[in-house]
Amino acid sequence: MAKRSTGKVRAKKAAGTTVARKIAARPAAKTKRAAGGAAKAPAAPPRPTELREWQALARHKAKVEKLHLRKLFADDPQRGKKMVLEAGDLYFDFSKNRLTTETLKLLYALAERAKVRDGIRAMFAGEKINLTEDRAVLHVALRAPRNAKIVVDGENVVPAVHAVLDRMAAFAERVRSGAWQGHTGKRIKNVVNVGIGGSDLGPAMAYDALRQFSRRDMQFRFVSNVDGTDFVEAVHDFDPEETLFIISSKTFTTLETLTNAHSAREWALAKLKDEKAVAKHFVAVSTNAKEVAKFGIDTANMFEFWDWVGGRYSYDSAIGLSLMLAIGGDAFRDMLAGFRAMDEHFRTAPPEKNLPMTLGLIGLWYDDFFGAETVAVLPYSQYLDRLSAYIEQLDMESNGKSTDRHGRPITGYQTGPIVWGTPGTNGQHAYYQLIHQGTKMIPADFIGFAKPNNDLGRHHDLLMANFFAQTEALAFGKTSEEVAKEGVAAFQVPHRTFRGNHPTNTILVKRELTPHVLGQLIALYEHKVFTQGWIWQINSFDQWGVELGKVLAQRIVPQLESPDAPKLDHDSSTNTLIRRYRKLRRG
Ligand code: F6P
């Protein structure tokens, strides 16, 4: 079943609010009748590459591309103290980047010309900047204070946000205290979140990140893959009488999630043997009450969110229910306060003091002017094991676009980078070789913590020594003269030379990882993605690119399952593969 058909999302007429209306200004929408009756289309807005500020950066790049970080640091001994920003608990050092103060000036000028601040204002005001789906983009409302007012379609959405948070907290408390019992009267010990994409990656990442704050006498697992292995392994040692499933799906029509949810129900009922048990062992998080009821979950046990929350921006909504069950309502609210602190910084700080904006601009500098294809996110914290996977979706589903907001194909510049990474120091013993000595430019974000979450002997200082050493080695490298001086055999010298000049950002968190810090970090990346998408003139909030594969899979399902399979009418490769699969599967 296709999750969303094109027709399901009604991209009504262009949004009615100011910035949204301006950026929606497609020729047909703004056509004025000329005197003679002929329609005259307004001039399309200039593409980013046509902006004076973009062109200035292109010229400037020729001046700085040969500069080595060794020289930049030698020329300005204060560089490492000057090229830093602070916001909340984050200290951001961007001095080890291939840029000068002039570069920064030009990047900030580009942000101003591209009206990033208007974009921020429009987002926070609830304007419908997700044009193709005619929706506001209001993940910032999910962490707005109780007394805030954010109006969408004439309604202040903040009270509803807090009402759901309160319901979640009350439910979490009942489960955690044992007041909520399973069908046979047993306490809930196991929680399984069933979701995929934004309905999985966020809570799974945050649960891992905040494991130290979680109930250790309860088990939390996350099932996303339609590969039956995911479900089977997740529940293999669980007792249905003690297990609660949270079916998390914005649309409640996603194939993978519903398949897993049905398997979960069968698994639970096989032991509980009573349909009524569903009410005690299944709750839902969704925007779609009708489908939730159809599945058999009492909508009294449904936690709501709204179409103005994008899936990949949703883990601080009810989608985070599993996380709240793990860490409790107070810690969850503390995390929201961390998000809010970064939101406020992003909304109010001028560009040159604005941490997410600066991070975004530096990324854009490499992406568009150096042709960098990827960005590595390298947390020096085992708790952030799943951070890169989370940011992959956040960044790549948001900014992996090749049509701009005005419907024009994007040519002449790159949009979103490929995001990847794993926690240090594991990567150091694997792929860092390529970052240090490969032929590609790999800008990288290093994230480290001043204080350990687990203060065990020398571990933290050793970890952080590696953290500092890597950005130093990447920036400054080791010249062939330095290598030769160490008495290295001549034939080895070129192999043991490090050219350096590899750009990195360092985010040093002033304390240990806490819910509040996690909120700040995630909001930082959300707003970095926003900044870049706005300058690239793309809609960072739709994801039409995931649809085609889903539709084709729906066509193939009966071709695999039905004994009188319909005639195969794919290309010769796909036909042959399907035939071979069918034979092997049945053989
Ligand atoms: O297929 C992509 C996607 O729509 C993501 O954007 C979303 O996070 C995920 O699927 C899950 O969607 P849902 O929450 O509606 O099940």
Task: Kindly summarize this structure in a few lines.
This protein has 587 residues and is α/β, with parallel strands linked by helices. Helices cover 43% and strands 10% of the residues.
Fold and architecture overview:
The protein has 587 residues and is of the alpha/beta class. 43% of the residues lie in helices and 10% in strands. The chain has 22 helices and 15 strands. It has helices at residues 18-23, 52-64, 69-75, 79-82, 101-113, 116-124, 158-177, 201-209, 228-235, 255-272, 278-281, 289-295, 321-327, 329-348, 355-369, 387-399, 432-437, 459-476, 480-485, 515-535, 547-561, 572-586, and strands at 32-33, 39-40, 84-87, 90-93, 151-152, 155-156, 190-194, 219-223, 243-248, 282-286, 302-304, 374-379, 418-420, 444-449, 504-509. A six-stranded mixed beta sheet has the order 3-4-15-14-12-13, sandwiched between helices. A five-stranded parallel beta sheet has the order 8-7-9-10-11, sandwiched between helices. Helix 12 links the parallel strand 10 and strand 11 (302-304). Helix 2 (52-64) packs antiparallel against helix 5 (101-113), helix 5 (101-113) packs across helix 15 (355-369) and helix 13 (321-327) packs across helix 14 (329-348). The radius of gyration is 26 Å and the shape is globular. The chain starts with 17 loop residues before the first helix and ends with a helix. The relative contact order is 0.13. The model is unreliable at 1-17 and 23-38 (pLDDT under 50). Bound molecules: 6-O-phosphono-beta-D-fructofuranose. 6-O-phosphono-beta-D-fructofuranose is lined by residues 196-199, 249-251, 254, 257, 311-312, 397, 543, 546.
